[in-house]
UniProtKB/TrEMBL annotation:
Protein name: RNase H type-1 domain-containing protein
Pfam family, one: RVT_3
Domain (RNase H type-1) ranges: 2-70
GO MF assignments: nucleic acid binding; RNA-DNA hybrid ribonuclease activity
Gene3D superfamilies in the record: Ribonuclease H-like superfamily/Ribonuclease H
Organism: Sesamum latifolium
Length: 96
């Protein structure tokens, strides 16, 4: 989402020490799903001129939670299809 709106320098925050250390390469990911996420991150971060991730305390994570919910909502919007049907002569038929 950041790249799509024109960001070229990315500063990310996480309250998870494990995730931050895995992204930084300090800790090794053991779960297959996390390894896949880290591969995606490695690919995406090459799109930016700079990328930094910072661990923050959980109590300071309200902004990050809000942003992640916003990103999820936008992603959900991309997958929805709304069909609009134009009726040249619309009419209502009474039912009994």
């Amino acid at each position: 989402m950041a790249y799509e709106v024109g960001a070229r320098h990315l500063l990310a925050y996480s309250d998870s020490q494990l995730v931050v250390k895995q992204i930084e390469g300090v800790y090794e990911a053991k779960k297959k799903s996390m390894v896949q996420y880290l591969q995606q991150i490695a690919e995406l971060r090459t799109s930016f001129k700079s990328f930094q991730i910072i661990q923050i305390p959980r109590e300071e994570n309200a902004k990050a939670d809000w942003l992640s919910r916003l990103a999820s909502a936008l992603e959900d919007c991309r997958t929805r299809h709304i069909t609009i049907q134009y009726l040249p002569n619309p009419r209502a038929t009474p039912t009994l």
